[in-house]
Amino acid sequence: MRTETKKTKPTRGTARALEMSKPRSIAAHFLGETPADWEHAHLLWRSVPAHRFHRDHRAAVNECMRRTSSTMDAWRLAIAGDAASAIGLALSMGIPQQVTIRTDLTMTVLLHNALRGSAGATLVLSNLIRRMPIDRADRRRLATSWLAHNFRQAWPELDERLRIVKAGTHRRGDDGEDLS
Fold first, then answer.
1. What's the pTM?
2. Where are the domains of the chain?
3. Beta-carbon contacts of residue 113 (< 8 Å; ≥ 6 apart)
4. CA proximity to 129, closest of 154, 111, 112
5. 3-state DSSP of 49-118
6. What is the C-alpha to C-alpha distance for residues 78 and 177, in angstroms, rounded to an integer?
7. Which residues contact 33 (CB under 8 A, 6 or more apart)?
8. What is the pLDDT of residues 26-42, one digit of tens each?
């Protein structure tokens, strides 16, 4: 015989901790994603691939960095947007046995610099994610997305060529070469 269990509402404090704000961007609304507030921004490097980073995610990472401070010069520079400092911190961290808050913060500082356009930070982010102790499928998906993001940033014309091929049209280059 099956017994019914009564579901209880979470306590007031728990409900507030679990509550997320409504999506503020069109992409978040149509893709069914919920924005990450700044308190959860340190989890984004291991949960959101590069092509899914929308305005709310970027704002959460920026706000997290704005609220983060340090007395160490390397950390202050990395938080302020110095990609070389962020890369140095990330590479000196090594590969941990498990993801800790220090790992999350270091990777978030690296992510912040990658989102600001640093190709080096994006490449190191991809490389480190590939070696982190997270689910293997997530690791591959996330690392590959950041590597592809780096290629798209370096060669934006690649995206244009892919759109043309997907649309089924043929485009000729200046020398008559078929670009599709």
1. 0.70
2. 26-155
3. 78, 81, 82, 83, 86, 87, 121
4. 111
5. CHHHCCHHHHHHHHHHHHCCCCCCHHHHHHHHCCHHHHHHHHHHHCCCCCCCHHHHHHHHHHHHHHHCCC
6. 45
7. 23, 27, 52, 54
8. 545 555 545 446 778 99
